[in-house]
Design a protein that fits this description.
Blueprint: H1 3-13, E1 17-22, E2 28-33, E3 39-44, H2 51-64, H3 74-81
Antiparallel strand pairs: 1-2, 2-3
Helix pairs in contact: 1-2, 2-3
This protein binds zinc ion.
């Protein structure tokens, strides 16, 4: 397993999103709502180390505000309650 995939998985798990099995057509993974299982997007695994966490961290406010993520509000709930990563 590509280690970057595990990094992506953990980054998205922090905001209540599950990384699904790779799509049949290649290096894209489906993003599933951890609350209800609905598909809410795709992510490619061609990221550099650290990029996945940064990507999700940048979107965290949008998830917390309910502007991104699933209509069921799972990411909103997770985003609002999860502590922000400290940045140096
Ligand atoms: Zn949902």
């Amino acid at each position: 397993m590509n280690p970057i995939v595990e990094e992506i998985r953990q980054a998205y798990a922090a905001v209540g999103i599950t990384l699904d099995q790779p799509a049949a057509y290649g290096t894209y993974y489906r993003l599933l709502c951890a609350g209800c299982g609905r598909m809410i997007g795709n992510v490619g695994d061609r990221l550099l180390p650290g990029m996945a966490a940064e990507l999700v961290e940048r979107q965290r406010d949008l998830y917390a505000a309910g502007l991104l993520g699933c209509a069921c509000g799972h990411q909103k709930a997770r985003g609002a309650s999860a502590p922000k990563a400290s940045r140096s």
